[in-house]
Structures are given as structure tokens and as C-alpha cells.
Write a structure and sequence with these properties.
With 424 residues, the protein is mostly helical. Helix content is 83%, strand content 0%. The radius of gyration is 21 Å and the shape is globular.
Length: 424
């Protein structure tokens, strides 16, 4: 055994807060960049994808956004397998380093007017790098958490998704603050780069902390599989269940990112109203998710998940109907707040339930692939699907149809996952 492995195998009681920060900061950085890119898409379109038609520019911008999701499953396969074969810590260091590289390219890349076609091509490369790195982040970091604190897996793993709420909160705060403090031309010229630069300031701190955490002792002591993906092939049902558990959660998440476009284009509300609603969602997701993780330790995970899914199915259509028929900033905030609350209840338990679907030898790979397939198919394309549904049906209520379908899919997966849960 190498000196590093010996050091990592020492039975040292890990520090809860240091471990949380080390693992969750990568997840936070990933979702912060995603939210910022979506919120400032129109400015990025002007800087890197200029055309005579603004709609085409925006389409190209969202196209580069969507392409990054297509590479996420590849990142999940490569980095997830690496985490199972070599170590969670090394995979976490690699993923955050790649995130920082992609963020740096976006932050400092000259505009199309300065360097021409190289600008949009490099933005596409940056998004591909970020997508690949994000593909391995969730599986490795969640496995790292639950293996360090198996007795508190529901609570500890809930912080994975609480940090996504914090990221939405920070991105919304940037959007709201910049629309108040900067002029439109200032945001267009240089202001949109500020939140990306902020991410670059946080990333190195996370990189430093990750270098000084130890592998979980249980992982160090077990025999490492040479081909975890081959083992997973025999567990296809578990992968399908993991994907199914995630679909409603990721669909709601990207619906919340879609709110600024939906509110301004379909409901004719102001940008500040839309950002205020997403800011509220960020607060709820950040605060309520870990509280629900604590509740899961007391009342069990299944009751919380079922109550959230049933409430979603019963209330999402009436909520959209009320908002569309009585459109106002307040109604938008109430609807978004309700969505965020239901998501927090369900969201808090999903990481630990997914972890229970896979043995330690394939946990990072299984979680990474299941998570990223769900995010790519049912989350990354959620804004496009909702836009197509609105166009096809001619009603702004169409997003509620999509969410109800996703809730039914997750309900099926939850039914199939019951026997895998060692404690509920």
C-alpha cells in the first residue's frame, strides 16, 4: 500500500463541516455556472453568437448550453469509473479542476467582434469541458459523503442538493443586483462576466480543501473493481430506477431556470419579477432541503418522497392555472415558491436513496450515470420541451403537463426502489 493510501486508511474521524464543504463546493460551482449561463443568455448571445436575428443568436447560445448536457453521460462514465477504480478524492480533484478551466475560458474569452469565429468555438469547448466535469461530480461527491457518514446519510447527502439551491440563490442575486446597479449597456459590455469571475474566485478554495480530505475508510479497505462498468451492465434495472428517481427533481430544477424566459416571454412580466421569483426559489431550496434531510432521519425517507410526489400531481395544474389567469409578480412568486418547496421535500432524500441502489464497488459510477442521464434527457431539454408544448397546445399551462408526467415516472421508480432501501 502506498504512503498516500496508508494515510487515507487511518481511522481518523472526519470533520463534518470540512467534508461537507469539500464535496459540496464542486456541486455548487457546477450549478452556479449553469444558472448564470441561462440567466445571462441574451448577453452571451450578443457577445459570442451575433446574427441579424436576435432569436437566432439566442438559439445558438442555448444550443451551446444544451450540447454540454450531451457530453455529461460520457463524463459520468469516465469519471464515475475512475472514482470507483482509483478513488473518490482523485475524481473530485479532477472534476473541480476541469470546471475551473471551463469557467476561465468563458470569463476571459474575447468577443466575436474581437477574434471572430474562434470566440463561439471556444465557448462551445468551454461548455463541453464543464459538461464533462459535471458528469462525474455528483456520483463521486455523494458516494464520498455517505461513505464517510453512513449513519447520517439522509441528512448529509441532502446538502448535495441544498448547494444547488444556494447556487440558484447566488445566480439570481447577481441577476437582480446587476439589473438594478448597472445599465443595460454596462451589463452587455462587461457586466455579464462578473458572476463567472466570482465562480473562479471560489473554485481554488474548493480545490485546496479537497486536497486535504481523506478517502472514506470503508472505501480504502475494500477491493477495487477493475471494470465497474461491466458490473453495472448486470444491474440495468437499478440504473433505470436511479434515472427514474431523478426525473421529477431535475425537471423542476430546470423549470426554475426557465422561469425568467417563461415569465417575460409568455406571461409578459418584467425581468426583475422573474429574478425575484428565482431568488425566492433559491432561498427555499437552500434552507428547506437540509431541514427535510433531518426530518428524514426521524420519519423516514419514503413518507417524505411520496407526500411530495402526490402533492405535486394534485396541485401543479391548479397552480399554473391560477398563475396564468391571474398573472402578477406575486402569483409568479407563489407558484415558484410552491414548486421549490415540493422539490425540497423530495430533493432532500434522493441522493441517499440513489446511493442505496448500488454497492460501494459501483456506487460512484451508478449514481453518476443515473443522475446525468436524467439531467441530460429530462432536465437539459426541459425548457425546449416546455416551449414546444406551449407552441403545440397554444396554452401557457403546458409546463404543468410535463411536470405531471415526470412525477408519474418518479413514482414508478420509487415503487421499484423500496426493497433496496436498507432503512427508510
Amino acid at each position: 500500500m502506498s504512503a498516500i493510501a496508508q494515510q487515507d486508511s487511518v481511522a481518523v474521524k472526519p470533520n463534518l463541516y470540512k467534508t461537507l464543504f469539500a464535496t459540496c463546493i464542486g456541486n455548487a460551482l457546477e450549478w452556479f455556472d449553469i444558472a448564470v449561463y441561462g440567466f445571462f443568455a441574451s448577453y452571451i448571445a450578443h457577445a459570442f453568437f451575433p446574427t441579424e436575428d436576435p432569436a437566432v443568436s439566442l438559439l445558438l447560445t442555448f444550443g451551446s448550453f444544451g450540447v454540454s448536457f450531451l457530453i455529461r453521460p460520457l463524463g459520468a462514465v469516465v469519471l464515475g469509473s475512475y472514482a470507483d477504480r482509483v478513488g473518490r478524492k482523485k475524481a473530485l480533484l479532477m472534476s473541480i479542476s476541469l470546471m475551473l478551466l471551463g469557467g476561465a475560458i468563458i470569463t476571459f474569452m474575447p468577443s466575436y467582434a474581437t477574434i471572430g469565429l474562434a470566440a463561439p468555438l471556444m465557448i462551445l469547448v468551454a461548455r463541453l469541458i464543464q459538461g464533462f466535469s459535471a458528469g462525474g461530480e455528483f456520483g463521486s461527491s455523494t458516494a464520498f459523503l455517505v461513505e464517510h457518514f453512513p449513519e447520517r446519510k439522509a441528512f448529509i447527502a441532502s446538502w448535495q442538493f441544498a448547494t444547488q439551491g444556494a447556487s440558484t440563490l447566488m445566480a439570481s442575486a447577481f441577476g437582480l443586483g446587476m439589473t438594478h446597479w448597472l445599465t443595460e449597456s454596462q451589463i452587455q459590455d462587461w457586466g455579464w462576466r462578473i458572476p463567472f469571475a466570482f465562480g473562479l474566485l471560489i473554485g481554488p478554495v474548493g480545490l485546496y480543501i479537497r486536497r486535504h480530505v481523506h478517502e472514506p475508510a470503508s472505501f480504502v479497505q475494500q477491493q477495487k473493481p477493475e471494470a465497474p462498468l461491466k458490473i453495472l451492465v448486470g444491474k440495468q434495472k437499478n440504473l433505470l430506477l436511479a434515472i427514474g428517481l431523478m426525473v421529477i427533481s431535475t425537471a423542476i430544477n430546470y423549470m426554475l431556470n426557465y422561469v425568467p424566459t417563461y415569465a417575460t416571454k409568455n406571461l409578459n412580466l418584467s425581468g426583475s419579477a422573474a429574478f425575484s421569483a428565482t431568488l425566492l426559489a433559491g432561498v427555499i431550496l437552500t434552507v428547506v432541503t437540509p431541514i427535510m434531510g433531518l426530518c428524514a432521519e426521524k420519519v423516514g425517507r419514503l413518507p417524505l418522497m411520496w407526500s411530495s410526489l402526490i402533492l405535486l400531481l394534485l396541485t401543479i395544474y391548479p397552480a399554473f392555472l391560477l398563475m396564468v389567469n391571474h398573472t402578477s409578480p406575486m402569483m409568479l412568486m407563489l407558484m415558484v415558491g410552491w414548486l421549490a418547496l415540493l422539490k425540497s421535500i423530495y430533493f432532500s432524500t434522493v441522493p441517499s436513496v440513489m446511493a442505496d441502489l448500488f454497492p460501494m464497488a459501483t456506487r460512484a459510477s451508478g449514481m453518476a450515470i443515473g443522475y446525468n442521464v436524467a439531467v441530460t434527457v429530462f432536465g437539459g431539454f426541459a425548457p425546449l420541451i416546455c416551449t414546444l408544448l406551449i407552441t403545440a397546445t397554444g396554452t401557457s399551462l403546458a409546463p404543468s403537463y410535463y411536470l405531471m408526467m415526470m412525477a408519474l415516472l418518479s413514482g414508478w421508480a420509487l415503487l421499484g426502489s423500496r426493497k433496496h432501501l436498507r432503512s427508510s
